[in-house]
Amino acid sequence: MVTSAPTSPELIARALVAPGKGILAADESIPTIGKRFKPLGIPNTEENRRAYRELLFTTPGLGEYISGAILFDETLRQMSRDALPLPAILERQGIIPGIKVDHSTTDLANFPREKITEGLDGLRGRLHEYRKAGMRFTKWRAVLVIGPDLPTRACLEANALKLAMFAALSQEADLVPIVEPEILMDGNHAIERCAEVTSMTLDAVFTTLSEHHVHFASMLLKPAMVLPGSECSTPASDEEIAAQTLHCLKRGVPPSVPGIVFLSGGQTPTQATSRLAAIHRIGKAAWALSFSFGRALQEPALNAWRGNGANVNAAQLALLETARQNGQAVQLARAPKA
Fold it and tell me: Alpha-carbon distance 96 to 62, whole Å?
């Protein structure tokens, strides 16, 4: 039975991090989803993108483990084979619809290797349109690279400013912003270096959010876990990743933020789920801890589907099982504040 969706931003933020549930990130841009389709021989057509998102959203029982789904603008406007708007299918499952509102990243002028995210132009108008279309939350992703002298202070401050402006505009439109400062896994840095950069990033982001009067109780944070670089010769255990991650978050995230939803950021589905569970084994925190996975939730389903309509049931079973595993991993999450 589907219950009525919450209406106020604070209640929506709490509902998105309900114990045992997480967010499905299905907001891949057209070029990005094309990269996911290509190895499986799936043509990157509008119909294939529509059919794939419909497969995800109509998975029976998905709402038991998924609280919200992040859409791409194209998906918001697409219909199911039964002529239902795809966001309406989510709502039937008791899943809150949200939308990615940033545009692509571009080079930060005068700072080689560093990126800035575009999309603030016209954002106020787009947000009000999305709210009228039934969206209840938004997401903006900033991208940060770790290197010998990276990220620079200028890059951190520039991205923090855009995240804060996005969050303030979202709250003005009665939408819950998900603030995503993603620190990429690329590089050979040790986990300690990632922890250092994570702390710097959280400090810059929350200082700027505060300066822009962003209401912490009506937002969520979507960070990467603290990980060694993908080319690091010294691996880290799940327990070390969990400890480093929680240490940084406890130092940098105000307790009034209702929840933190981790991104998978290039981890395999197995790695992301195992490390998520390890974070919860350490103990309770001031905020609810959950997930907002893209590839780590979708990869088994996409591999099962392969663009073939005969494989829809198998793909949906794969998605449901992956969602169930992650839902179990966050069962011990602290319930949102009353």
Answer: 12
What letter would DSSP give residue 177? E
Q: For residue 115, indicate whether it is catalytic.
A: no
C-alpha 179 chain-centroid distance:
9
Q: Are residues 198 and 226 in contact, defined by beta-carbon separation less than 8 angstroms?
A: yes
Domain ranges of the chain: 9-329
Main-chain dihedrals φ then ψ at residue 132, nearest 5 degrees: -65, -30
Give the tokens for residue 118: 């575009």
Beta bridge partners of 100: 139
Phi, psi of 259 (to 5 degrees): -160, 155
Question: Residue 79: helix, strand or coil by DSSP?
Answer: strand
Q: Which of 119, 77, 244, 289 is nearest to 87 (CA)?
A: 77
Q: Which strand (E) or helix (H) includes residue 50?
A: helix 46-57
Determine the Cα–Cα distance for residues 140 and 148; give it in Å rounded to an integer: 26
Distance CA 190, CA 205 (A): 23
Q: Name the residue type at position 39.
A: P
Rg for the chain (alpha carbons), in Å?
Answer: 19
Enter the CATH code of domain 9-329: 3.20.20.70
Which residue among the candidates 21, 115, 162, 222 is catalytic per the annotation? 222
The yes-or-no answer on residue 180 being catalytic is: yes
Q: Which of 54, 91, 180, 299 is catalytic?
A: 180
Q: Count the Cβ atoms, other than its own, within 10 Å of residue 338.
A: 4
The two three-digit tokens of residue 221, written as one number: 């944070």
Per-residue pLDDT tens over the stretch 299-308? 999 999 999 9
pLDDT computed for residue 5 by the predictor: 62
Please, what is the Cα angle at 88 between 166 and 97, to 5 degrees? 25
Q: What is the pLDDT of residues 122-147, one digit of tens each?
A: 999 999 999 999 999 999 999 999 99
CA-based nearest residue to 140, from 157, 108, 116: 116
Verify cis geometry, omega within 30 degrees of 0, for the bond prior to 300: no
What is the per-residue pLDDT across 83-127, written as a single tens digit (0 to 9) for each?
Answer: 999 999 999 999 999 999 999 899 999 999 999 999 999 999 999
Q: Give the mean model confidence (pLDDT) for residues 35-57.
A: 98
CA angle 61, 33, 45 (to 5 degrees): 100
